[in-house]
Amino acid sequence: MDSLSEVVALSSFLTVAFRDSPNSPLSLVSSGPKAAKEQQICDSPPACFNYIFTTFGGENGKDERTLDVYTSADGIHFAPYVMGAYVPENSLLRDPSIILHDDGWYYVVHTTSWNGDDFALIRSKDLKTWDHVVTIKIKLTDEDLKVEDNKPRVAQSWAPEFFRDPQTNNIHIIISLRLPSPIEPKPDFEMKTNFAPYIFTATSRDLKSWTPGKQLDVIGLTPADSYIDMFVIYNGSDKATPYHGFMKNEVEKHIEHLAAASVEGPWEFVQKGDFAGWGIKEGPAVVQKPGGGWRMWADDYHGHVMYADSNDLWNWTKMVDMPDGVSRKVRHGTILRQV
């Protein structure tokens, strides 16, 4: 080196390179409103946003028809990136779940109605402009899948959640379904069964084709039970049961914990009741943190999303509000961690 200025320049370059590495302990140092605001000037979201939160609610937390996108550097402080990013023509938009597909597109699947028999997918390259991909009429058998009709097979379909299985690379949607009561001579859509989790699997890379829905095999689940909002994650360090699920007991209104050796089950309850002491909660969404451990967000019913942390998926901290006034604006959605 011929000068002090060259040494300083090289030092600055190496610091920036190290900070921006995904494995760098400095990569998530910036946090809070300032960091979130700085992200908004980035023209390449996949390279800029560590966390993306797709939700609904709007400025008053009550809008059920618009997609809102928030971003964060640290998974704690979220700021609006695009409010009202998408409005469907003829349906609600609740419970949006997001993935980044290997085709380079972000896909969101969402609830379309309080009393619907379908789910809808939209996609975007930049998180700002979204297009409708497909609305899937729910069918539950191979025979039904061959029939082109508008006959309803389910009475309610809530909270579809994406899950990409790292063991198979299959993309699944897990959704809470309520069937019409099987009363002769025809099903009764007023007297419904209780909710249970069902799984669909994509059969085309463009996510326009899906298998019939299949009820997940949950040990001990009876017709008297009712469960919604199942969120599945994969924990490779758990060799026996790497698949973990969190879903809301719709009767007691608590989030409960399940585990399985396969995404299709059999699933077994491993923590029931209000095991974490969170009280009434719904809509869990879980990500693995970069330095290890897990973070869960959940809605307490009143447009009030909170989060808690765990080192092992079994023992959790107390739930606290999302900071910066975001907690009361957002509703049930999904957080995508990119870095």
UniProtKB/TrEMBL annotation:
Transmembrane segments: none annotated. InterPro entries: Glyco_hydro_43 (IPR006710), Glyco_hydro_beta-prop_sf (IPR023296). Belongs to the glycosyl hydrolase 43 family. Keywords: Glycosidase, Hydrolase. Pfam families: Glyco_hydro_43. It comes from the Eukaryota. One of its GO terms (molecular function) is hydrolase activity, hydrolyzing O-glycosyl compounds. GO terms for biological process: carbohydrate metabolic process. Gene3D superfamilies: Glycosyl hydrolase domain, family 43 (2.115.10.20). This is Arabinanase/levansucrase/invertase.
